[in-house]
Design brief:
The N and C termini lie close together (11 Å). The chain is mainly alpha-helical.
């Protein structure tokens, strides 16, 4: 495990990169399923900077780690130059396209169709970028990493951790009430669930392969001491993230549908004595429904951010799951 602790910056980078890039998968799902108001889109665009900052922090940690010749040699030794070069290329390509998307969105140059198409392109690049990182490890000379399950696991990481981060951005931008009225919740949950299942499968298969390899040479020995603890922590993190997503989606919906229902739903929601007294007052006559609608919208704006704590907890849990999985992965470096 000493080698793992030495490479903790890389552990963080390989956890943060799929999570940050995968956030655009969550955004793409939101834009493909929900038509947000212009004001909501402006708030979402401001929060789109969050995954870019997380990615930048991860890259800085990795670059700082490789600043010394010994650390750089530890990273690139045994790595296939072509696979490593492709991973670097995809990192640059994703960062540039994602940054251009954010800038164009911030200046208000994206129509609804263009936004959907652009966000989808960034989401696809996010998955390819994650797979490219996994492929670089798969093509190394570490025997236990030489498996197609490694890039597949990175793709799962991108879905399982990126979608919760994208949902957190929507919640922080007070966009979840609008998204709850559409198929966004189902699509986001299914996508994150698929990613979690693939991630857990990849981690488990790698651990079983490592255990079988070690046991064949040293019967009764453990491949990685305490490995099952890391596996349980990782599985628990994915489960908690999914549960937090489900809890965040069960909140109130947008008040945009209140206007068409004004005179029926609005008044019906009031106590009858309140309606009678309001109708009896000349000053208030004709203003009951608008007042109710304004009050409902104010309450909806307050409720819109109540999902943020759930999703912060979910993102912390899934990041812990990724870090545990990556520690276990690096521990197999023998």
């Amino acid at each position: 495990m000493d080698l793992v602790y030495l490479q903790l910056p890389l552990v963080f980078f390989t956890a943060a990169a799929p999570m940050a890039s995968g956030a655009f998968i969550g955004l793409a799902i939101a834009f493909l399923t929900t038509r947000f108001s212009a004001e909501t889109l402006r708030r979402i665009d401001r929060w789109t900077l969050l995954p870019l900052v997380i990615l930048a922090v991860g890259v800085i940690a990795a670059v700082a780690f490789m600043n010394t010749p010994q650390s750089a040699l530890l990273v690139i030794q045994g790595i296939d130059p072509g696979a490593f070069g492709f991973a670097v290329f995809m990192a640059v390509a994703f960062a540039v396209v994602a940054l251009v998307y954010w800038i164009v969105a911030m200046v208000g140059r994206l129509s609804d169709g263009a936004r959907k198409a652009f966000a989808t392109v960034v989401a696809v690049l996010a998955v390819v970028y994650s797979v490219a990182i996994g492929a670089a490890y798969m093509m190394s000379d570490v025997p236990l990493w030489a498996s197609i399950i490694v890039p597949l696991g990175f793709a799962g990481f991108s879905l399982a951790s990126g979608v919760p981060l994208g949902m957190l951005m929507l919640a922080a931008a007070r966009a979840l009430p609008e998204a709850r009225e559409t198929r966004f919740g189902t699509a986001a949950l299914v996508t994150a669930l698929v990613g979690a299942v693939v991630s857990i499968l990849a981690i488990t298969v790698q651990l079983m392969n490592a255990q079988a390899t070690v046991a064949a040479i040293f019967p009764g020995a453990d491949a990685v001491p305490g490995a099952w603890v890391y596996l349980i922590v990782s599985i628990a993190g994915f489960v908690v993230a999914l549960a937090c997503m489900r809890g965040a989606l069960s909140g109130p919906r947008s008040g945009r549908s209140a206007a068409p229902l004004g005179s029926t739903a609005g008044v019906a929601a009031m106590p009858w004595n309140s309606v009678d007294s309001a109708a009896a007052s000349p000053a208030a006559e004709g203003n009951v429904v608008p007042d109710l609608e304004a009050r409902y919208r104010r309450q909806a704006a307050t409720d819109a951010t109540k999902a943020v704590p759930y999703l912060v907890l979910g993102n912390v849990a899934v990041l812990a799951a990724l870090v545990a999985a990556r520690v276990l992965f690096y521990a197999m470096q023998f």
